[in-house]
Design brief:
By secondary structure, the protein is of the alpha+beta class. It has 5 helices and 4 strands; from the N terminus they run H-E-H-H-E-E-E-H-H.
Amino acid sequence: MSAAANPATVAECLRVGAGFSQGDRNWIAEQFATLDARLAGFHADATELEVSVKDREARGQKVTLECWIAGRQKIVTTSAEEDLHAALNDVRDDLRRRLNDAKTRQEPRHNKHLRDIPQPQGESDPTDGQEQLPAADPSRADAETV
């Protein structure tokens, strides 16, 4: 994944949904700031985050964090933690894990050298290190091969 010209950040991409007010947005963005390093590989214009909570501060509340990145499947993480702070941390950590997993699936596997070492572009002689065989004499062709 190459560095994006306009890297995504939580502060730029986060929307607050149901159960949160715009006043909660800055506090939530601070909680999610550790996602910035993972999101930096994506363009801000192509990345969206939305956090919402159902039945806030009630028993059985449910926090949902949705992430849309262009060209990828939507990622949805949820938490049923009773403490709102713990629930936000739970969905944040789960999103980070899923983004890491998605990145790993897209990278070459079991061939780290292909990722780290540029491959030579020049042509190589296919007979390097091999013994040269004499050229076949066309006048001695077998009857079966003619």
